[in-house]
Design a protein that fits this description.
TIM Barrel, eight-stranded parallel barrel, alpha/beta
């Protein structure tokens, strides 16, 4: 692959980084079966193309994702990539979800296991996946700060938290970035959360830029596989899906006028929101990665951006981004 991610962004304490990151969740969990060899090839292709930020979670298939990343990084200069790890989700052997644990002792235990699975002596960005309602964020960030001091973590990140939590966390230790869903159809970060991050010099790593494939231009009812959690997502159900896919077709026509694909238009729109916002693409194959990389360097004029927003207004999407019980866990939605 010859495409290079020449453009850069700034993510708080992490500093300058290529303008796109790779999210690895779908290579192990939640979107149905993935091809191991293709996943590893895709990670390596992303690195070859200049991507540095690789995002995983210790609960993605109970450690499978971290071990997959370890294998993909065999022979790769460790200092050429930044590994971002989310922690705290509690899961059972049946794959069930049992809440979150961000107590200081749990933070350090989770980190120890991640370092072993990843085969590395440090994590570049370590972040709680969600706010633990039973643990003050100061305690959680304080524990990670101790790991920074010990050299096991380089930077501290947050995920899906609101402005007040961001301020409290940042008062304990500088925060590199907030990972939060941000797309044409998920724009809750705009306003207090984004304003607070910019005031404090905290970057944004935007996941879900294609709304889990919904606005990729490739999704249809036939795409759902066994164990695909999207079948439980309101945006992918019944009449909601029909309405949302109709919006995608409107966007397709606008994207074509700009000479880009639907996915490229959606990614480029997120990237256009600021020099402190890095889209995380969840490409599971080299083909989808190549398409996503094509969005880097795409410069959309104000008229084009306005046409994209008019084709897919945030308020027109049908259904919430998570099921109700999961939405209730999001500090960012309070």
């Amino acid at each position: 692959m010859t495409t290079q991610t020449r453009a850069t962004k700034t993510l708080g304490t992490l500093g300058t980084t290529p303008a796109m990151g790779l999210g690895l969740m779908g290579m192990s969990a939640l979107y149905g079966p993935a091809d191991r060899d293709e996943s590893i090839a895709t990670i390596r292709a992303a690195i070859d193309a200049g991507i540095r930020l690789l995002d995983t979670g210790d609960f993605y298939a109970m450690g499978h994702n971290e071990m997959l990343l370890r294998d993909a990084l065999t022979g790769v200069d460790r200092d050429s990539v930044d590994i971002s790890v989310k922690f705290g989700a509690l899961r059972g052997p049946d794959g069930g979800w049992y809440g979150f644990d961000a107590r200081p002792g749990a933070v350090k235990t989770f980190l120890a296991y991640s370092l072993e699975r990843l085969g590395t002596d440090h994590v570049d960005v370590y972040r709680p996946a969600r706010l633990d309602p039973d643990v003050p964020i100061e305690d959680t960030v304080g524990a990670i700060a101790e790991m920074v001091e010990a050299g096991f973590v380089r930077h501290i990140g947050l995920s899906e938290v609101g402005a007040e939590t961001i301020r409290r966390a940042h008062a304990v230790h500088p925060i590199s970035d907030l990972q939060i869903e941000y797309s044409l159809v998920s724009r809750g970060v705009e306003g207090d959360i984004l304003d607070t991050c910019r005031e404090l010099g905290i970057g944004i790593t935007a996941y879900g830029v294609l709304s889990r494939g919904l606005i990729s231009g490739h999704y249809s009812r036939d795409n759902v596989q066994a164990n695909d959690f999207r079948s439980h997502s309101p945006r992918f159900q019944g009449d909601n899906l029909d309405r949302n896919l109709a919006l995608v077709e409107t966007l397709r026509a606008v994207a074509a006028d700009s000479g880009v694909s639907v996915a490229q238009a959606a990614i480029a729109w997120v990237a256009s929101r600021g020099d402190d916002i890095v889209p995380l693409v969840g490409a599971r194959t080299r083909e989808r990665l190549a398409e996503s990389l094509g969005a880097v360097g795409v410069e959309l004029g104000e008229e084009q951006l306005a046409a994209i927003e008019a084709a897919m207004p945030a308020g027109e999407v049908a259904g919430t981004r998570y099921a109700s019980e999961q939405m209730a866990m999001l500090d960012s939605e309070r």
